[in-house]
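Please think about what follows:
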Amino acid sequence: MTNLFCALRGRMMATVFSGGCDKQVKMWPLLSGGQPVTIAQHDAPISELAWIPQMSLLVTGSWDRTLKYWDTRQQNPVHTQQLPERCYALSVRHPLMVVGTADRNLIVFNLQNPQTEFKRVVSPLKYQTRCVAAFPDQQGFLVGSIEGRVGVQHLDDAQKNKDFTFKCHREGNEIYSVNSLNFHPVHHTFATSGSDGAFNFWDKDSKQRLKAMSRCNHPIPCSTFNNDGSIFAYAVSYDWSKGAENHNPATAKNYIYLHLPQETEVKGKPKIGASGRK
């Protein structure tokens, strides 16, 4: 049975794409109730997917060290992009795309010229990349890692003084992976979700945590906001961060929860001490 690594909606939310350890991407029609169709394939497990509506293409990232762009009406990829290592994370805010691979590579693409790398940098975090999220204004990106830390990175060298990293999803000496990063579509603050079973809301501009939520009993492997930010959806399940020996099928149930964010939880705040104001 396929381990589902990633799924997303596209084509006016009438279609779901899914990919996993069977090395295939399936397209599921929601409205017609038809059977899924295999529309893409890699030589190793597929870790990331993104539908790019501006290009009418699906991009897939794999442990076979490639990105592939697919026109779902064609059998072969439109373009195959070699990566320096296995793809671990991917985020698109057209025309910006950010890819995180093994060995802490962060590769930036301008999708107006997708066959050429725009920039490649080493992650500011010391350990394995777990997730990335492109800024809504396409001026930079967030990167999260297994060490319970997030980096805020700007693309323009003139804004490098705004780069910083911060700790999160830690409790005492316990350090948990940051599994998911999601920008709010209206306020452009963001959420982090982690293996500690918690999600928190942050404002990168004022460098403040807006709200810390109560922890769940199991890790949160993935999360997202809906289109207007009125719903924050997150999955609760075992995330394999402690290996197969710590997986108990009797207790490791899978759940999807919906949180309705209050404006005070997700609206940014003025910088502390900015121009004498607080």
